[in-house]
Amino acid sequence: MVQAFIEMVMNYYDALETRDPEQREQDLMAKLAQQLAHAKEKSPYYQQLLADIDPASVTSRAALAALPLTRKRDLIELQKQHPPFGGLNTLPAGKALRVFASPGPIYELQGEEADPWRMARVLYAAGFRAGDLAHNCFAYHFTPGAYIFEEGARALGCAVFPGGTGQTEQQVQAMVDLRPNGYIGTPSFLKIILDKADELKADISSLRKAAVSGEAVHPAVRQALRERGMTIRQSYATADLGAIAYESEAEEGLIVEEDALLEIVRPGTGDPVAVGEVGEIVVTTFNPTYPLVRFATGDLSAILAGTSPCGRTNLRIKGWLGRADQTTKVKGMFVHPEQIADIARHHPELQRLRLVVDNPDGQDQMVLHCETAAAGEALAQAVIASIREVTKLRGEVVFCAPGSLANDGKVIEDRRMFS
């Protein structure tokens, strides 16, 4: 009985993972108020954005949902206006431990905090332990990817081989010589390495576990690794936020990291959606150096009902389900998800909306599909007028029953054929 309890406890990085959900929520809300106060005091961007907000009053999900979003796609312009970090940082660039550039370019900084991207928990769930040698195949050039995982591995007490990307034969030879316990990188590059090792008849059987990110793990890949005696765990992280969610031995969705305050909102809005409904991932973190509040990632997912069979009690998400930024151009005019949300606000009788763009006769046309229980000609004409007012384009309306539109997070669907 005692041995079983010890083994169960060892499955978790710390006691936070099995907290009572109500206690976790209280803890997060207390930290949220503190982080808002810190950001408002130290960050020029948040001084302006939160000028009319009393941080001490933001102690609930509803209060959090009333705060404005900061969208990842806006960082490029913000950083051009207020270089190098758009004013979101609380630490000057010259005092950072490292400064990175992600595609865009978008610049990020690393403070001096230990494991600032909170990856130790993710790696622990993937089976990494103190004394392991981790072969890290994320890029060490420009972007923070490799450092995100390396800092987590070091926090666990692992040694790290900085393999980086490419040079497959050299990667295999290093594995033969060094006998690493685990792989860190993308699943596709792991397959390339394994195939090369098979071709060279090289023994890299020391690899028993893999922590992967950046791509979804195909079930066939997972099974192939199992047949080799390897386990693979995937995680969802971004250069700005660090770890957001991770897979456990249950392999049922991704569990939200304990210091990530996650919301799923309707694309084009900051409004939280119901459990199970697909929407945009919005995250608030408690990084003191780079305090991101209601940071809209542009990625789609949905919250899974219930808790993980592994015993961790935090929220779970389905994983990456696509992109929320569905902006499209119709007759030379951009149409944004925010505009569809604006139309919905004009008409509270409407529920879920989906703008379908097509060109059946070579001419662009827009049809707004609206879930409502109050369909009628007067409402149709009012919605058509709103489409014209908001988008400056003509559009038609189709009413449909509540709950009948696909639950895939799409607000704008482009069906046009161009060939």
Automatic annotation (TrEMBL):
One of its GO terms (molecular function) is ligase activity. Signal peptide: none annotated. Gene3D superfamilies: 3.30.300.30, N-terminal domain of ligase-like (3.40.50.12780). Residues 157-284 form the AMP-dependent synthetase/ligase domain. It holds the Pfam family AMP-binding. InterPro entries: AMP-bd_C_sf (IPR045851), AMP-dep_synth/lig_dom (IPR000873), ANL_N_sf (IPR042099). The keyword 4Fe-4S does not apply. Keywords: Ligase. PANTHER family: BLR5969 PROTEIN. This is Phenylacetate-CoA ligase. It comes from Candidatus Competibacter denitrificans Run_A_D11. The lineage of its organism: Bacteria, Pseudomonadati, Pseudomonadota, Gammaproteobacteria, Candidatus Competibacteraceae.
